[in-house]
Amino acid sequence: MNRERKKGGRHPKLEKKTHHVMLRFNDEEWLRFLAMYEQTEVKAKAVFAKARIFGGEFRVFREDRTLVEYYAKLSSFHAQYRMIGNNYNQAVKELRCHFSEKKAMALLYRLERCTKELAALTRQIVELTKEFEERWSQKSV
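-> C-alpha coordinates emitted (141 positions)
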Protein backbone atom coordinates (compact mmCIF):
# COMPACT_ATOMS: atom_id res chain seq x y z
CA MET A 1 0.00 0.00 0.00
CA ASN A 2 1.64 3.23 -1.13
CA ARG A 3 0.42 6.16 0.87
CA GLU A 4 1.29 9.71 0.13
CA ARG A 5 1.79 12.01 3.07
CA LYS A 6 -0.87 14.66 3.39
CA LYS A 7 -0.05 18.23 4.37
CA GLY A 8 -1.53 18.06 7.89
CA GLY A 9 -0.44 16.11 10.92
CA ARG A 10 2.77 15.42 12.69
CA HIS A 11 6.08 14.92 10.91
CA PRO A 12 7.25 11.30 11.13
CA LYS A 13 10.07 10.71 13.64
CA LEU A 14 13.45 9.69 12.29
CA GLU A 15 14.00 7.11 15.01
CA LYS A 16 10.79 5.51 16.25
CA LYS A 17 10.79 4.20 19.79
CA THR A 18 9.04 0.87 19.77
CA HIS A 19 10.07 -0.73 23.07
CA HIS A 20 8.31 0.13 26.30
CA VAL A 21 9.34 -0.58 29.90
CA MET A 22 7.12 -0.11 32.91
CA LEU A 23 8.46 0.44 36.43
CA ARG A 24 6.61 -0.15 39.66
CA PHE A 25 7.62 1.62 42.85
CA ASN A 26 6.50 1.16 46.42
CA ASP A 27 5.60 4.33 48.37
CA GLU A 28 9.10 4.86 49.76
CA GLU A 29 10.80 4.35 46.40
CA TRP A 30 8.29 6.62 44.67
CA LEU A 31 8.97 9.42 47.15
CA ARG A 32 12.73 9.03 46.66
CA PHE A 33 12.27 9.04 42.87
CA LEU A 34 10.11 12.19 43.03
CA ALA A 35 12.60 13.91 45.33
CA MET A 36 15.40 13.25 42.83
CA TYR A 37 13.24 14.25 39.86
CA GLU A 38 12.11 17.54 41.45
CA GLN A 39 15.72 18.59 42.02
CA THR A 40 16.42 18.57 38.28
CA GLU A 41 15.24 20.75 35.42
CA VAL A 42 14.03 17.77 33.37
CA LYS A 43 10.45 18.21 32.19
CA ALA A 44 9.40 14.54 31.92
CA LYS A 45 9.81 11.71 34.42
CA ALA A 46 10.48 9.23 31.60
CA VAL A 47 13.38 11.32 30.28
CA PHE A 48 14.76 11.58 33.81
CA ALA A 49 14.50 7.80 34.42
CA LYS A 50 16.12 7.04 31.06
CA ALA A 51 19.01 9.38 31.82
CA ARG A 52 19.56 7.65 35.19
CA ILE A 53 19.52 4.19 33.63
CA PHE A 54 22.06 5.04 30.92
CA GLY A 55 24.21 7.19 33.21
CA GLY A 56 23.41 10.54 31.65
CA GLU A 57 24.68 13.59 33.46
CA PHE A 58 22.25 15.71 35.42
CA ARG A 59 22.67 18.67 37.65
CA VAL A 60 20.78 19.52 40.76
CA PHE A 61 19.99 23.17 41.36
CA ARG A 62 18.83 24.16 44.80
CA GLU A 63 17.60 27.61 45.56
CA ASP A 64 18.24 28.64 49.11
CA ARG A 65 15.52 31.12 50.05
CA THR A 66 17.50 32.33 53.08
CA LEU A 67 20.35 33.36 50.79
CA VAL A 68 17.97 35.29 48.54
CA GLU A 69 16.32 36.97 51.53
CA TYR A 70 19.71 37.88 53.01
CA TYR A 71 20.81 39.63 49.82
CA ALA A 72 17.45 41.39 49.56
CA LYS A 73 17.96 42.76 53.08
CA LEU A 74 21.50 43.86 52.16
CA SER A 75 20.12 45.72 49.17
CA SER A 76 17.59 47.52 51.35
CA PHE A 77 20.40 48.44 53.78
CA HIS A 78 22.32 49.97 50.89
CA ALA A 79 19.31 52.10 49.95
CA GLN A 80 18.93 53.21 53.58
CA TYR A 81 22.63 54.18 53.75
CA ARG A 82 22.17 56.41 50.71
CA MET A 83 19.19 58.09 52.41
CA ILE A 84 21.23 58.55 55.60
CA GLY A 85 24.05 60.16 53.59
CA ASN A 86 21.60 62.53 51.94
CA ASN A 87 20.02 63.44 55.29
CA TYR A 88 23.48 63.87 56.81
CA ASN A 89 24.41 66.49 54.21
CA GLN A 90 21.13 68.33 54.69
CA ALA A 91 21.51 68.30 58.49
CA VAL A 92 25.04 69.74 58.32
CA LYS A 93 23.87 72.55 56.01
CA GLU A 94 20.96 73.40 58.31
CA LEU A 95 23.17 73.36 61.42
CA ARG A 96 25.61 75.73 59.78
CA CYS A 97 22.88 78.15 58.66
CA HIS A 98 20.56 78.25 61.68
CA PHE A 99 22.68 77.71 64.80
CA SER A 100 25.56 79.44 66.48
CA GLU A 101 28.99 77.95 65.94
CA LYS A 102 29.18 76.53 69.49
CA LYS A 103 25.72 74.92 69.32
CA ALA A 104 26.39 73.60 65.79
CA MET A 105 29.69 72.03 66.91
CA ALA A 106 27.97 70.29 69.85
CA LEU A 107 25.29 68.86 67.57
CA LEU A 108 27.88 67.90 64.94
CA TYR A 109 29.84 66.04 67.62
CA ARG A 110 26.75 63.93 68.42
CA LEU A 111 26.15 63.36 64.71
CA GLU A 112 29.78 62.29 64.26
CA ARG A 113 29.46 59.79 67.11
CA CYS A 114 26.37 58.23 65.49
CA THR A 115 28.19 58.11 62.15
CA LYS A 116 31.08 56.21 63.74
CA GLU A 117 28.61 53.70 65.20
CA LEU A 118 27.03 53.31 61.77
CA ALA A 119 30.45 52.75 60.16
CA ALA A 120 31.31 50.08 62.76
CA LEU A 121 27.97 48.40 62.12
CA THR A 122 28.67 48.47 58.38
CA ARG A 123 32.06 46.81 58.90
CA GLN A 124 30.38 44.12 61.01
CA ILE A 125 27.78 43.54 58.26
CA VAL A 126 30.54 43.15 55.67
CA GLU A 127 32.38 40.63 57.87
CA LEU A 128 29.18 38.66 58.51
CA THR A 129 28.40 38.65 54.79
CA LYS A 130 31.85 37.24 53.97
CA GLU A 131 31.42 34.57 56.63
CA PHE A 132 27.92 33.79 55.35
CA GLU A 133 29.14 33.44 51.76
CA GLU A 134 32.03 31.16 52.76
CA ARG A 135 29.75 28.96 54.78
CA TRP A 136 26.52 28.77 52.79
CA SER A 137 26.97 29.82 49.18
CA GLN A 138 26.89 27.02 46.63
CA LYS A 139 30.18 26.05 45.05
CA SER A 140 30.39 24.99 41.41
CA VAL A 141 31.22 21.31 41.27
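The chain has two domains: 23-61, 65-136.
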